[in-house]
Amino acid sequence: MRISLLNLMEYLCAKISILALIVMSGITFMDVFGRVVFNHPIGFSYEVVGICLGVCFYSGLYHVHKKRKHVRIDLLEKLFRGKAGEVIAWFGYLVELVFFSTLVYMVYKQMEESRQFGDIFMFLGLDKWLVIAAMAVFAIIALVSLVVAYPDRENGEA
Q1: Which pTM value belongs to this model?
Q2: Cα–Cα dist 16/137, whole Å
């Protein structure tokens, strides 16, 4: 069995996304349980859930980009066939590529600003730029997935 780097990245991102969801749901359950039963919530739950949500989102984007499973409006796809459909599909892909590249750059800039300012989480005591750096890495990996998942009109994708 041949293992490619892209398949390995997809596998790791999927497992990390699942782990983030499990941690997020576990922390939420413990926080609500502690608040209701003991009248004492977990202080760091909002920070951990926020971190897990960001990690889950950015690590899950690899699969979304690779499989082209975005939420999209496809009202015009049936109207445009042939060369016009290909041009429109590639135009939409390029717009998406530019938009997501800009998003990756903005996450990187946010990481730099957080590092320079010295932001830390209130309850965790962890530097925020480290978490944003992890999200930036996942965003870059998702960008790689988007780059290799160009439109394929022959397989019914636009």
Answers
A1: 0.74
A2: 13
